[in-house]
Amino acid sequence: MFSGHNIIGYSTSAKAGKKLQAFSTIRQGYLPEEFTIATEEDIEAATAKAAAAFEVYKKTTYEERARFLEAIADEILAIGDALIQRAMLESGLPEARLVGERGRTMGQLKLFAEVLREGSWVEAVIDTALPDRKPLPRVDLRKMLVPIGPVVVFAASNFPFAFSTAGGDTASALASGCPVIVKAHTSHLGTNELVATAIIKAAQKCGMPDGVFSSLVGEGSTLGQGLAKHPVIKAVGFTGSFRAGMALFKTATERPVPIPVYAEMSSINPVLVLPRKLEEDIDKAASMLAGSITLGVGQFCTNPGLLFIIDSPHTQQLIDKLTGLLKATPESTMLNEVICKSYHEGTKNLLKEKGVTTVLEPQDFSEAYKGGASLMQVAAQDFMSNTELQNEVFGPSSLIIRCQNKEEMAAAVRSLHGQLTGTILGTVEDATEFSDCIDALTEKVGRLIYNGVPTGVEVSYAMVHGGPFPATSDARTTSVGADAIKRFVRPVCYQDCPESFLPESLKNANPLGIMRKVNGQMTKEPIS
């Protein structure tokens, strides 16, 4: 079923003697299939093919790219149950979750096909010539976004489909017109081969150039650093730990020609639990928080890791209800052995910090590769004086920050690092009274949620899945949603360009029928 080879465009390679195996927390051991580590020669072959493919692929029409993305979705579905079963073994995730994630992955691909056909993503702007303008005439200026070149995508551990081989980074880069080289996650080697093969089948069926997609296997720093340093590579998409993300960022910025790294790295997703909300519906608030903390064994980048609460008669009541719900949630298998070990070590390390006390301490199920919920608390003053309390504990863990009043809550929120999300559980009256706290939270996050939970990221036009550092390396971008395509493009201005040489998006007749800004006005009308 598996070749164990690296996929280099339309060819495969297995030149190295060293191989890797995926570890299964379900089977509590390594799976038997072996996957060959990419050599320097493989890296050179993949990057050379990507460079050559870019010269062809960047000139494909938006419709051709859209059909390619849709074909990838079809080929992924065609793998059938074998894909789900392999991902279950490699990730420890349940079948229903993976079936849903496969659907999300296909939906992402189809969204970008829709984005391509709609066309306004290129941000076409036309300022027509004004030859009679005084004191100086204006030249004809036309601007649009164009693809930047081959992109490296690092597959994530917690989403074997949606943030992996054919995930959002790959989909958005391919949509923009950039070839992609994926570094397979070592936990999902079989899943990666199945999906990578599906992408290649789609590319061949759609007549895409050899090298538009490749997938390489290797250990983290060696392969990853080699790709990030390579002069052919023009951008990096990454989802993972802060340490690995910053290592890539450092490499990319120290190259002779620096490149952007779009890294999603660390977020503990604060929640403001406001007083009137507790008075009105404390049971619902506790239920929502418990469900979000434990969803997927807490292995989401949007897991609510901080709960800011004002001390009041209802505070202990909420804590007791939340503790009961968390305690009733059974421990579950975690994604891989490294994440499981880090989770148990992380909770123990938090309890060593000044002022942190246990509300619910998890039992250590690390030998069975399982995690149970943990809940701790600390006074706001101790939280603000200790940045170690902002270290992400990836798993079903949350830390309660007990604040004396709204002024202390606002100060504690201002002390936060950048986050992907911030959540407000409160009434309209709460939002008015605590507006300073909410304003402070808005400065720290990429997405603000009212009376919901941060887990669950809709794939849509308005979504922002990004945030100030260290949540991501570039707060101006998103890795989920239609605007993710803009990470892999750059603006080009065409001055006095003859009509015959203009890209279709900028021609007078507007043959693509897209929305453009012409002399300051948004329109689809042609230029006469």
Explain how this protein is built:
The protein folds into 2 domains: 6-265 and 478-486, Aldehyde Dehydrogenase, Chain A, domain 1 (3-Layer(aba) Sandwich), CATH 3.40.605; 270-450, Aldehyde Dehydrogenase, Chain A, domain 2 (3-Layer(aba) Sandwich). The protein is built from 15 helices and 25 strands. The chain has helices spanning 40-57, 62-79, 81-91, 95-118, 168-176, 189-205, 220-229, 242-253, 275-294, 315-327, 337-351, 380-384, 406-414, 428-433, 435-442, and strands spanning 6-8, 11-13, 19-20, 23-24, 29-30, 35-36, 125-127, 141-147, 151-154, 180-183, 213-216, 235-239, 261-264, 270-273, 306-310, 332-333, 357-360, 370-371, 374-379, 397-403, 419-425, 445-450, 489-495, 516-518, 521-523. A 7-stranded mixed beta sheet has the order 2-1-11-10-9-12-13, sandwiched between helices. Strands 17-19-20-15-14-21-22 form a 7-stranded mixed beta sheet, sandwiched between helices. A 5-stranded mixed beta sheet has the order 23-8-7-24-25, with no helix packed on it. The radius of gyration is 25 Å and the shape is globular.
Give the helix/strand layout.
Blueprint: E1 6-8, E2 11-13, E3 19-20, E4 23-24, E5 29-30, E6 35-36, H1 40-57, H2 62-79, H3 81-91, H4 95-118, E7 125-127, E8 141-147, E9 151-154, H5 168-176, E10 180-183, H6 189-205, E11 213-216, H7 220-229, E12 235-239, H8 242-253, E13 261-264, E14 270-273, H9 275-294, E15 306-310, H10 315-327, E16 332-333, H11 337-351, E17 357-360, E18 370-371, E19 374-379, H12 380-384, E20 397-403, H13 406-414, E21 419-425, H14 428-433, H15 435-442, E22 445-450, E23 489-495, E24 516-518, E25 521-523
Parallel strand pairs: 7-24, 9-10, 9-12, 10-11, 12-13, 14-15, 14-21, 15-20, 19-20, 21-22
Antiparallel strand pairs: 1-2, 1-11, 3-6, 4-5, 7-8, 8-23, 16-18, 17-19, 24-25
Helix pairs in contact: 2-4, 2-6, 3-4, 3-6, 4-5, 7-8, 9-10, 13-15
